[in-house]
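Closing statement on the zinc ion sub-project.
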Amino acid sequence: MSNSDCLFCRIVSGEIPSTQVLSTDRVLAFRDIAPQAPVHIVVIPKVHSSDIAQLGAQDPALAGELIAAISTLAAQEGLEQGFRVVFNTGSDGGQTVGHVHAHVLAGRSLTWPPG
Ligand code: 5GP
Ligand code: ZN
C-alpha cells in the first residue's frame, strides 16, 4: 500500500527527493533532512506501515530486513565507533511521521538517557 498523504511514501515514490544511501527490494535508507548527529540516516520499509508495533505484528520478516539494512549501513558508512538506532513510536515516543522508520545516529558521542 502506498499512501499519497504520507511523506515517506512520497519519498519512496520519488515524488519528494531524498539523498538515498541504500535501497533494496523492500527497504530504503536516506539522510535525514535535519540531522541530529554527523551521520543521521532514516531507514524505512517501502510499503506503508504506521510504526514498529504495527510492522512487527504484521510483517516481522520485514522488520528483520530493516535490521539487516542497518547492518549493511554500519559497514558502508564506517560506523566502527558505534551508533544508535531509535524507533520513535506514537505521540509519547515523539513520532512525527506516521510511516515506520529507524533513525541511525552516529559520528559523535551520544548521551544516554535521552531527554
Ligand atoms: P520522527 O520525528 O517521526 O521520529 O522522525 C521523522 C524524521 O523525518 C525527522 O528526523 C525529520 O527531520 C525527518 N524528515 C522530515 N521531513 C523530511 C524530508 O522531507 N526529508 C528527509 N530526508 N527527512 C525528513
Ligand atoms: Zn507511508
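The helical segments are 7-13, 52-58, 60-76. With this model delivered, the sub-project is considered complete and its resources will be redirected to Aim 3.
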